[in-house]
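From the thread on structure requests for the teaching lab: each student submitted one protein with a one-line request. Submission from student K.M.:

"Model Mono/diheme cytochrome c family protein from Inmirania thermothiophila, tokens only."
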Amino acid sequence: MRHACTTLLLALLAAGPAPAADGAGAADAVARGAYLVRAAGCKACHTAEGGPAFAGGRALETPFGTFHTPNITPDPETGIGRWSDRDFVRALREGLAPDGSHYYPAFPYTSYTGIRDEDLLAIKAYLFSLPPVRRPNRPHALPFPVSQRWLLGPWKRLFFEPGPLVDDPSRPAWWNRGRYLVRALGHCGECHSPRNLAGAMDEDRFLAGNPDGPEGEVVPNITPDRETGIGRWRVGDLVEVLRSGMLPDGDFVGGAMGEVIDEGTSHLTDADLEAIARYLLSLPPIANPEAPAGGR
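Reply posted by the TA:
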């Protein structure tokens, strides 16, 4: 069913450009896209320290090598200024560049694939409203065999299923909203889940923490396990962490999660923060003493 939806979407996009939105409609899309970009955490990863926002160049240290995030401003030469709607949707839905080459999953299309069509295009509308920044991308620094990009095709056939994420009608609206924010937009599993030897998320231990997280950090367990996760936290505790970074014991989160909060979750509505918190606390608890909550 997911493949069918994706095929239909791409067929519609290939058929020709959508009618131009009127001024009010375009402004609405940009405003909604700005919020979604916050929820998706784009700025933190695509901005180098001291560099212009969204112009890329940030180095992501991973167990598989160092990836440098690309420029996603609308500069036509070094950014995404020449991308069509179809190019943008295909990149986030299928992990494919406009020239058809595969992206590394350091770009979390494995989660972004769940984002709905209208939200993807609103994100693009916002990014294209920004001033273009001319800044060439830096090449990744990857060891063999990770450096062999052609291997990503077989990798995707083994570990990747394109979206979008469909609501579960048997669940309440807050649960579906929380799942969408956690699994697709917020792509929380990309950092908070352990990975197998091939670098794919371990879905059986989704959100159970990752002792080998990006940039060498231990990423905490955010399942409701009472001993190693967040099972003793209340909804209000989680909302406060996402809003201000303050943990239930009065300490504050740091590292990459601090940036996620500053640039992303602290700008979300109370309703969305509560949906995230309630969804996380509704999941099955998974013990993981190697990556306890709070990274302790």
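TA comment: The chain has a mean pLDDT of 89. The two ends are 42 Å apart (CA to CA).
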